[in-house]
Amino acid sequence: MLETKEKTIDGHEYQVTQFPALKGMRLAVKIGKLLGDGIGHAATTGSVMDMDVSKVVAGIVENLDEEATPNLLLQLFSSTHRDRKEMNESGFNMAYAGNYMEMGKALLFILEVNYGGFMGALEQARSIGSQAEASAAK
Which of 31-35, 40-44, 75-79, 85-89 is least confident? Predict the structure, then answer.
């Protein structure tokens, strides 16, 4: 069953409904392709302190496309309401014109609602791996 979660972001009420499974997987693949090079670089560093942020950002920016990226954003926001208004192209444009910080916060909430369990599992696996490395180094 699809869950809907609510959150107030910068004074606006958001309702985000989970994607159906196949739509969520298709979008996860698109997100992976977009972020892949940047995440790949981040994953090869020993720790966050060793990470060259410019290489991570460059890897992500290299994959941005002026047509595909806005289309991906609209797909990600397709099951989102802001102050009870649908976030279609018109709603998106009106809500986020000059308001990119709120858009970023809303996007993170959408990812949390749809992929939070998966991201939590990845973080837990990474943490276990780091602990094993630390134990092996002793």
Answer: 40-44
Q: What is the rounded CA–CA span in Å between residue 50 and residue 37?
A: 17
| pLDDT single digits (tens) 51-65 | 566 666 666 677 677
Q: Which CA distances in Å does 133 have to 25, 29, 71, 118, 126?
A: 32, 30, 40, 23, 11
Quick one: which of 24, 15, 18 has its CA closest to 2? Answer: 18
114 touches 66 (CB < 8 A): no
Query: Could you tell me if 108 and 31 are in contact, meaning their C-beta atoms sit under 8 angstroms apart?
Result: no
Q: What is the C-alpha separation between 20 and 14, in angstroms, rounded?
A: 19
pTM of the model: 0.73
